[in-house]
Amino acid sequence: MAIEHKSIAAIREDYTKGALSEYDVDVNPFVQFKNWFDQALNAEVVEPNAMVLSTISEDGFPSSRVVLMKDIKDNGISFFTNYESQKSIDILRNPKVSILFFWPELQRQVRIEAHSERLNEDDSTEYFQSRPKGSQIGAWASPQSQIIPNREFLEQRVAYFEDEFKDKVILPRPDHWGGFLLRPIKFEFWQGRSSRLHDRIQYDKVDGQWILNRLAP
Prior knowledge:
Helix content is 27%, strand content 34%. The protein is of the alpha+beta class. It folds into 2 domains: 15-129 and 175-215, Roll (Pnp Oxidase, Chain A); 132-172, no CATH class. The longest helix is centred in the N-terminal third of the chain and has 14 residues, at 29-42. The chain is globular, with a radius of gyration of 20 Å. It starts with a helix and ends with a strand. The model has no long low-confidence stretch (mean pLDDT 95).
């Protein structure tokens, strides 16, 4: 049954779970992000490291998908993927990306703009070999983003690599799989507030320094 437009328009929630002041946030957006991420962990947010990664395709269209952050350090955020996937092709062509974290349990989101680059091979290998063996097999088996004839094709490839690596405890990392490091140039921290008068604190990196401003909701 189709949802009537007026029913969709009536969906709303008042945001009352917190506030965000430019006088209370840390001057370093990485520290502020880690503080919020820890709070999301403590609040048992479902997959708090899930982030919407948006890239620009060759024809100029934005493309978004959910990926998982696997590390955050003072120089950036990292995630891992197939280097032959569409997202990787987009990134290698245009390294400017945006990231969005949404934590509805806390009525918060963090929007980030960043430049991306490939992680070094040692870091990619270390993480790859820390994954469950089934996930490692999946990385070998899946020609990510490519058209395949059916599910059986994928299952046959999985079976092939399960047999190929049946005697191995530690699998080699395929050359087509690894990580990206996203180096932020802008953070926006959004805290939902009542009557849609949300708090928005933005950090911009200017000449190597972080400049903090409040944005109107």
